[in-house]
Hints:
The chain is of the alpha+beta class. The protein has two domains: 2-48, Phosphorylase Kinase, domain 1, CATH 3.30.200; 56-289, Transferase(Phosphotransferase), domain 1 (Orthogonal Bundle), CATH 1.10.510.10. 35% of the residues lie in helices and 9% in strands. Strands 1-3-2 form a three-stranded antiparallel sheet, with helices on one face. A hairpin with an 8-residue loop joins strand 5 and strand 6 (118-120). It is globular.
Amino acid sequence: MKSVRKNDPNVKPGGLAREIMLLKEMKNKSIVQLVDVFEDADYIHLVTDLCTGGELFDKIVEKSSEEDGSPCFPEHEAAHLIYQILNAVSYMHEHGVVHRDIKPENILFETTEEDSPIKIIDFGLARHHFDIEPPMTTVVGTPYYIAPDVLRKKYDKSCDLWSVGVIAYIILCGYPPFNGADNSEVYDAVRRGRYTFPSSDWKYTSRESRDFIRRLLQKDPKKRMNVEQALNHPWIVNHTSNVVERSDDDREDRSVEVIFHHDKRDSIIVPDTSPKLPKIKPLALFTDCL
C-alpha cells in the first residue's frame, strides 16, 4: 500500500489524481494493478498488488557485490528481465502513456522465486502523451536514468527507451553508464552521452547485448530504437524465443521486421585503464538522487 500525506507540499492533488487514473487504466501483467483507493483525514492510500520479491535495485546491489568476474546478471536472465520491461513499456506506449521514471527502484519482483515475474510500479510522474501532441517540456525523472532529450526539455515517449537502455547496462555490469559525484555531474554526463564498456566487466558479455544497449542509448531520439524494434532485437529474440508472455488483452501480433547490421565500432570493448573500484560503489550514489 502506498500512503500519501495530503498536506505534503510536494504532493499536488492533480498529480495524485492523474496517477490513480493511469493506474486504473493499466491492465498488463508486468504493471502493478491498482486494487482500491482509500482516503482518511490525513492520507490517501493506494492499494495495489502485493509484490514480495523486493526491488530490482536491491537484487543488483546483491549481485554486483560478487567478485567472480562474471556479468552482474547472466545474459539470459538480463534479457528476460528487459523483455518483461519492454512488454510493459509497449503496453503503456500503445495506450498513450509515458512512464518517465523507469528505474530499478520502480521494478519489483512478484515473488521471491528465482524466476519471478516483475511489475513496474509508481506512476507518479507518468502522463498521457500522444504522437500528435507537441513535445513534453517538464524535466522529471531520476538523474541516472533520465534521457538527454528530457534535459533539453523537448522529448516524447522515447525517453522511456533510454531508461531501459541504462537499466540493461547496469544489470550486466553493476554500475551506471553515466555517473558523477552529484546530480549536476550526472546530468552533464548524460548530456554528453559518452560511455564505455570496460573490458574488465564486459569481456564475458555478448556483442549483441552491447549492440542492444548502444541502439537505446542514442542521444538523438530519432536514432533510438522504439519499443517494437527493441523487442525484435536479436539479443532479446535469441534469449526469449521460447517464452510466450504477450498474452494479455494488450498483446497483438507483431508484424514489424527489423534487420540489424552490426557495426564493429558499435560493439567495441575498451581496456579498463581507470582505477578499479568495487562494483557496488557507484550504485551507492543512487540513493542521493531519491
